[in-house]
Write a structure and sequence with these properties.
The protein is of the alpha/beta class. Helix content is 38%, strand content 28%. It is built from three helices and nine strands. Strands 2-3-4-7-5 form a five-stranded mixed β-barrel. Strands 8-9 form a two-stranded antiparallel sheet. The longest helix has 44 residues, at 2-45.
């Protein structure tokens, strides 16, 4: 029975140690990914803006500075809910912009805090005089959204996340060709109280590295503790054997 318990304890220690090490390496990989994102943003940020319609492969144009000529279709407004900036809870305001080539794009116009209660949304309309949007390409992923909520014309819709594939399918039924990307508006820097200080990586690479060090430290502490316990067990067994001989 003791041998079985010893084997089970050993297997448990190996499993926990392996899990801690895996978490550490996962954090290092996340740090590498975040650093790549920051490097790409820094590289693209110095590039000259290009026309949105000239993008050959939008899926490979992350952070590319772009300019779009056209007009707002402010009957389509969306709120990306539960966005935190400067320690405050708020939401991002999205409006649809139609280019002169009849290509529609969702424009993230910026962030607003909740001011009139936990879920009181406001929809500052874009200026009809604004016929050009400047910003950069952002590919947000799916945000683990299962389905779009019910969308109605001229009704601002709160969203838990962005699923561009579903948005494209919805707007296709309205005869609107939506591009598979978001434009984060950067000019003008301030408009109707909208905050446009975009965070590329909410958690920095250094923070991921710090977490990795913690996981590795826990794994090391577990290994040292296991060795200490094992060494004491060996010493005790030797002492018992010696006592029996006497």
């Amino acid at each position: 029975m003791k041998i079985i318990n010893r084997w089970l304890t050993g297997l448990l220690l190996i499993a926990v140690f392996s899990s801690l090490m895996s978490l550490g390496f996962w954090q290092l990989d996340r740090a590498r990914q975040k650093q790549q994102l920051l490097d790409v943003r820094a590289e693209q940020g110095s590039a000259e803006p290009v026309s949105l319609e000239t993008l050959i492969d939008p899926s490979r144009s992350q952070f590319m500075p772009v300019v779009v000529q056209g007009h707002w279709q402010d009957e389509w407004t969306f709120f990306l809910d539960n966005r935190i900036r400067q320690g405050r809870l708020g939401y991002n305001v999205f409006s649809l912009f139609m280019s002169d080539q009849n290509l529609a794009v969702l424009v993230d116009r910026g962030w607003l805090p909740f001011t009139n209660g936990p879920r009181q949304f406001a929809a500052p309309k874009p200026s009809n005089l604004q016929n050009r949007v400047m910003g950069y390409v952002y590919l947000p992923g799916d945000y683990r959204v299962v389905d779009l909520p019910e969308i109605e014309l001229n009704k601002a819709i709160p969203l838990p996340g962005l699923n561009l594939t579903q948005f494209q399918a919805f707007f296709q039924t309205k005869g609107i060709q939506l591009m598979p990307l978001v434009v984060r508006q950067t000019f003008p820097e301030s408009e109707q109280g909208l905050l446009r200080e975009w965070a590329i990586a909410i958690m920095t690479p250094d923070r991921h590295i710090g977490y990795a060090i913690q996981w590795f430290a826990l794994a090391t502490a577990l290994l040292v503790l296991a060795l200490i316990v094992r060494n004491r067990e060996l010493v005790r067994n030797r002492a018992l054997k010696s006592a029996k001989k006497i």
